[in-house]
């Protein structure tokens, strides 16, 4: 028995009354594109899971590494510890890297590890709702741009 293929998908229920502004039915939703969200997306991809989306309210990746850009902004731990263990960066310029370099490393990982196609930018998640059976038993994630469903 394969848990990935034996789980019923939501297409049959979601397609009933589904409008054109609902682009995707997915298995997994990841919220945010900072280290946690990006790390989850990368691990899903590495495990052969492709039915996922990463929602980001802003127009680019990075979370606080994108939003905090004041003079002198840098990490407070050594740079080699401030990166993914499975995607080390041997080229840090300093022991405590500045914000632009950290953000560039996140961008590099996003592209090198192939998760950018799964990202939905400018999608601010407004809530998550579960439609109890018999009304489908699916999750709905309305964003400002679309509503996405998952079994």
Automatic annotation (TrEMBL):
Top enzyme category: oxidoreductase
InterPro entries linked to this entry: FAD-bind_Monooxygenase_sf, FAD/NAD-bd_sf
Pfam families assigned to the protein according to its UniProt record, in alphabetical order: NAD_binding_8 (PF13450)
Listed Gene3D superfamilies: FAD/NAD(P)-binding domain
MF term (GO), any: cyclohexanone monooxygenase activity
Record's signal peptide: none
Keyword Oxidoreductase: yes
Domain of life: Bacteria
Keywords: Monooxygenase, Oxidoreductase
EC number: 1.14.13.22
PANTHER family linked: FAD_NAD(P)-BINDING DOMAIN-CONTAINING PROTEIN-RELATED (PTHR42877:SF4), L-ORNITHINE N(5)-MONOOXYGENASE-RELATED (PTHR42877)
Record protein name field: Cyclohexanone monooxygenase
